[in-house]
Amino acid sequence: MANFPPSDGSIDGHEPRDGRERPASGVEQSDLELVRRVQRGERGAFDLLVLRYQHRVVKLVARLLRDPTEAEDVAQEAFVKAYRAIGSFRGDSAFYTWLYRIAVNTARNTMASRQRRPLDYEAELSESEQSVVESRMRHGDTPEAAALSEEIHQTVNRAVEDLPEDLRTAIILREIEGLSYEEIAAAMDCPVGTVRSRIFRAREAIDRNLKPLLD
Amino acid sequence: MRRVFALAIAGVVALSLPRAEAAAPTARDWLERMTESLATRDYDGLFIHTAGQQSETMRIVHRMEGGRSVERLVSLDGNGREIVRTPGEVHFYMPDRRVVLVEPRSDEGSLLKALPAPGPRLDSLYTLELRKGGRLLGRDVRVLDVRPRDEYRYGYRLWLDQKTAMPLRSEVVDGSGATVESIHFTRLEVGEGIDPRHLQPAVDTTGFQWIRAGRRAEPRVAGPPSASWLPRKMPPGFRLVVSRSQAVPGSPIPMQHLIFSDGFASVSVFIEPAPAKGPAPSESTTVGSANAFSTQMSGHVVTVVGEVPAATVRDIATSLAPVDAELPRTDPAPAPAER
Amino acid sequence: MTDQIREQISALLDGELASGEISLLVRRMERDAELRRAFGNYVLAGESLRAPGGLTASPGFAARVSAALEADGAAVAALPVAAKHAPRRWMRPLAGAAVAAGAALAAVLFVPAGEEGSGLLAGRTDVAPAMTIASLPPGGSSPTPAQNQRLAGYLMAHGQYASPIGRRNAWSNALAADPGITRVALEIVERP
User: Fold this and answer.
1) Are domains A1-136 and A142-215 of this chain identical in fold?
2) What are the extents of the domains in chain C?
3) Nearest to C155 among B96, B286, B290 (CB)
4) Which of B90, B201, C52, C146 is the most exposed, having the fewest neighbouring CB atoms within 10 Å of its CB?
């Protein structure tokens, strides 16, 4: 089967592509709808966008800062900035692309305020992107965070492995291959409604396992 | 991926400026060349603007059209604001406020003559020093230091392109030597061939509120002032160069706008009728090298704005006093426009 | 019933929820922390599958952002205290800061370069009221959007009359986001 990138366009914090290889995905479209609601005054819609992108933004910011312990504070600042500036988002790029730039800018300013010589950002970024800050990230900022990250990973993996095959296939095609419900329906030869239900039940199973870990 | 912008500079036009004598250009000459380049050349560039601890990437496009300059300044880092200056109007797009501010454009032609050019007076206010620079953006540069002789002004450090005198990098420096604001170009194209479409705003203004400053805004070279308030104290060297009044939407009383200049820096004084509600504490605002001080006195709101330190705008603002109608007049001129 | 709603949340995450159903769901999620928690875990599951063991936001992160947005309007940032006003002996009366209209004034305002300290007010110090400036206790405020807009308007008008480099600086600052605003209190002492 075809190997598409996740439909929200980003992998592991790298800058998402703006040019679309396929028509605007469901996620981009639903992000746009949420943004429109925020622009009309529905604060709750922004909370959903935060929930959706919090991990990616925290991970991205941690990658850029020399000191990942501040990642959450700076990520929070980036979200606040995005909220304040939401009026200027026009939808000609994906929401995450726009949010990504704000997060990069926020992290950049934080670095600058510490170093006092904010020269040559682009070079700084590419260096840190290429360097193996990966390993620092994988271990999180503290031993506890590292342990938690690892436990989350184990828990999710175990839960997925324990799933009945049709649920497991559905969730993997969705989350890792990034296929839409229609594409999954075609791949699994079943109705779209069934796909939706299978993905839901897979998530519920994972959630049941995660809940005691995170509460 | 937003990498380092390509540093290739296309089509640099080496403009040969007329030289009256063969003597080596002085620091003053370089300053004048820089001002002229900024005002009259076509260019399109990207720069990083840093003020305090915030920095933003911006784009500036400048083009001469029929002898008048048009330009566009855009913030590229999220808030989407931009300023577009067309032959007739200046538009300030604020997508975050869903507002466009519109001002009629000042008629530069006649005013440029009145604005004091850096004259001999400049030397008494600033020291200018020219030094060899290295290379920036693939060009040779000279470094021009403009240092004020007192604490009422800011200093400048300018990295000027040897060929065009365009400032590839500039820093505004305060009395303690700290950089208050800086502009570093990461890409700059100078010369012909700027596509006029690059001067179109990128903002969709559907549903925006358009706020137009009043029509009656013909600036006058300083003559008998129509202002009813004037500052009593100014730093040495500042002269009143323009006095204009502008209708304020929704009020019968126009706003006065006075512009003072020392030949390099300028300061604006705005005097408006105060809103009905009671007195408010004064406000001091700093953004980069722009300082503003706003205060209320006797039913007026006075705001002083300029590229000078905060203490300077505050001192000017607090020295404002009404035109005193009791002083003897030396000729039977009509009474100053009283408010 | 709850299952149906949670299934909608799952579909929303995948961008597969009908547009008409989004608003209602958003409002439900605003009111129900459990629904938000579930959404968060669905997101986490996906992130974990795609990038195992990577850094993730801690469980309380989204709630903190939400709280920060609530407080945004009333945010008080500590700004440097405005310096106390010290009398400045170097400021000279503006050459030509005349107080009478007419020819005398015109002559004074067009003082040729190099002349200073002339004009009607040279030496006059008894007209302006004395002012002292005290600062309010530290705690300047985050500017309101209206303040931002007003400042933008002033910078815009000022920039028009500045030199080219002054205009570029003034307008760049007008485009920047948040100026720092300090409030000071002015105490006006009128001279008799």
Assistant:
1) no
2) 2-74, 103-189
3) B290
4) C146
How far away is chain C from the Cα of A80, in angstroms, using its nearest Cα?
Answer: 6
Q: At B290, which helix (H) or strand (E)?
A: strand B290-297
Min Cα separation C94/chain B (Å): 5
pLDDT recorded at residue B159: 95
pLDDT band at A100 (very low <50, low <70, confident <90, very high): confident
Q: Which fold has domain C2-74?
A: Arc Repressor Mutant, subunit A (1.10.10)
Token representation of residue C121: 């007010």
Q: Domain B27-199 belongs to what topology?
A: outer membrane lipoprotein receptor (LolB), chain A (2.50.20)
Could you tell me which CATH number the domain at A142-215 has?
Answer: 1.10.10.10
- In angstroms and rounded to an integer, the radius of gyration of the C-alpha atoms of chain B is 21
Domain A1-136 has CATH 1.10.1740.10: yes
Write down the pTM of the prediction.
0.55
Tell me what pLDDT residue B335 has: 40
Q: Find out whether B313 and B289 touch, Cβ atoms under 8 Å.
A: no
List chain C residues with pLDDT less than 50: 73-140, 188-192
Residue B110's H or E segment, with its range, is: helix B108-114
Q: Which residues of A touch B98 (CB under 8 A)?
A: 87
Q: What does the pLDDT look like over C102-147, one tens digit per residue?
A: 222 222 222 222 333 333 333 333 333 444 444 443 334 556 667 7
Looking at chain C from residue 171 to 190, which residues have their Cβ under 8 Å from any Cβ of chain A?
Answer: 177
Taking 90 as the threshold, does the pLDDT of residue A141 lie above it? no
Among the partner-chain residues B60, B236, B305, the one whose CB lies closest to the CB of C168 is B60
Q: Which residue did the predictor score with more confidence, A71 or A128?
A: A71
Q: Under an 8 A CB cutoff, do B234 and C92 touch?
A: yes
Interface subset of A 92-151, CB within 8 angstroms of C? 137-138, 140-141, 145, 149-150
Region B214-322: CATH code: 3.30.200.100
Q: Which residues contact A99 (CB under 8 A, 6 or more apart)?
A: A49, A53, A57, A78, A82
Inform me whether the C-beta atom of residue C73 falls under 8 Å from chain A C-beta atoms: no
Give chain B's residues under pLDDT 70.
Answer: 1-23, 78, 107-120, 214-227, 248-251, 276-279, 324-339
Residue in the structure block whose two tokens are 């769901």: C25
**Alpha helices by DSSP H, chain A:** 26-39, 43-64, 71-84, 95-115, 121-130, 133-138, 143-161, 165-175, 181-188, 192-214
Q: What local confidence, expressed as pLDDT, does residue C114 receive?
A: 30
